[in-house]
Amino acid sequence: MIRTEQISFHIGTFALQGVSCQIPTGQYFVLLGPPGSGKTIFLECLCGLKKIDSGRVYIDGREVTALEPRARNIGYVPQDYALFPHLSVEQNIAFGLRVHNFSHKDIMDRVTEIADLLEIRHLLPRRIEGLSGGEKQRVALARALVLQPKVLLLDEPVCALDEATRQEVCAQLFRIQRRLGLTTIHVSHNLEEAFSVADRAAILHQGLLQQVGTLSELLREPNSEFVARFMRCENIFCGQAVPPFLLSQESTGAGSCDTKVKVGNIQLRLSGRYNGQVKFTIRPEDVLVFSGSGDDVQNENVVPARLQRWRDCGSYVRIELDGPVNLVAHMTHAAFAELQAKHRPDVIVMLRPENIHVLPGF
Amino acid sequence: MTSNSPMRGWHDSIFAAAFFLFMAVFIIFILILLISDIFYIDKKAVIEVITSRYIRHALWMSIWTSFTTAGIALFFAVPTGYVLSRFRFPGHALANSIVDLPIVFPPLVVGLTLLVFFSQTALGRWIQEDLGLEFVFQPKGIVLCQFVAAASLAIRSAKTAFDDVDRRHENVALTLGCTQWGSFRRICLPLAWNGIIAGGILTWARAFGLFGPLMIFVGSFRGRTEVLSTTIFLEQSVGNLEVALAIALLLIFVALIAITVIRLIGGSAVAKL
Q1: Confidence of residue B5 (pLDDT cuts 50, 70, 90)
Q2: 3-state class (DSSP) for residue A297
Q3: Tell me: the pLDDT tens digits for B128-185?
Q4: What is the ipTM of this complex?
Q5: What is the pTM of this model?
Q6: Could you list the residue range(s) of the whole structural domain that residue A241 is in?
Q7: Chain B touched by A337 (CB under 8 Å)
Q8: Interface residue A88 vs chain B (CB under 8 A)
Q9: Same structural domain for residues B30 and B48?
Q10: What is the DSSP letter of A243?
Q11: The domain containing residue B22 runs over which residues?
């Protein structure tokens, strides 16, 4: 288990500001954030490579805040792997074992074992120069794992790889993590990477931990506009809650726990009670688009719109809709084909109350 | 002609040809100078250089003092270069500049400064008289003079070489169980080795050919403080131009061999670190 309590560290004008989080044993944790958000610095603080200004770091219940990096039993794979170019693959992997004065036989046994696990035995005699990105990544991982660390810290481990190799390596990382039961922190700025490996994730921005949770929670229940945008939610709106006394019994519904919110010239029903100004998000994939015109609009949370632009994004189609509120929707290719957008740009859009998430503390 | 980048068109050929031209002009110019020296000297001068025990002594003095200087310079250059490269401290910029100062000293100033220090200051006199470490007009002074004039080159090269070593390599070594010293010895030093050796070669070359400050600080006493560079000066000052040039060619020949050997030894040593 890794636990950090109020870690603070500053360098120049940048500062990590009281980062606290807890990662249970055996969990694959992904730390997300845009470049420059402090992800690498956070990892280096955990490793002991940066001396923190304040706060505490615990690994498996033991406080390691004041310990040197070598005493923390951490496996660390930095960005671009930092393989030792003057050593062979075998020497790179065996480096930690040699430093710890393992016997030659133990070194050979452990190196062979980890090389087999990562399927790089054939690379052992090779020099680092000339290895492919994926091979380098596996060698760096083997070098970090050979000392059987309690936790594994991966700094952008696949960012230098091409798309296909990235997916393959992510799958391998996840398999190995599960097999060894290692508590792992994987730093990335890439959401797809997180979806392929994460049990839980956190978002860091300007040195502040914004939100920690499962990816589903980060997607569906972001706690700030930044998190929502980072999770690629483009539909973020401000509205004014309509006071209940202004609503008829019919429109509120007897015993209703919902709130009506006025956005532009329409009213949307939201799950839950809110007052005053609210900011809310609707994920693009939760925007339901049907063919039809404004005449068909009879239900609440159904608004007329017009298709303005659409773009094929591979696995889905991204469409931009103009209407009382401007929306972005993601549709499957099949659903988009049914719309016959070229001939009938007028559509109706349904926004289900349970899919509308109100950002807290606004 | 081979190149790491593919040749694509006539403009690429012109580019390469122009750059090769600069290299060729320089090399040809140097070779012409050497060849004109070779044609100038005669058999008698060569025999004199080979048989003169003073010249043999000067050669030996040049070799041992310059190698000693290069060794001491590297001994200082590695830690100094590492500190300047890796640590930030108050006065870092000033320290960095002071390290470079001897490079811009006019050579004669080095000799004069050393002479003033050892003859006119209390500390200098204490070193010479009380500690018994005599440098002025002594063979030890040759090494000191060469060191002051040339060590900056070794330090500058070492610092640049350490700058080029990605700090993440050392960081990884620290997480793999190394102490700071261990990561320096096992990772940083081998990766910076070629640059350090290059600095050693520069230092040695500067020390080997040093002349001006030696004439002031240690003089040129036959069989005692005479080195090849001062021998050349003495020979040409008494009109023995052929002998002076023969000694110069000997100096160049020894330098060529020494630089090649240092490169070879330095290259193989990196694997053993």
Answers
A1: low
A2: coil
A3: 888 888 888 888 999 999 999 999 999 999 999 999 999 999 999 999 999 999 999 9
A4: 0.85
A5: 0.82
A6: 235-358
A7: no
A8: no
A9: no
A10: P
A11: 10-40
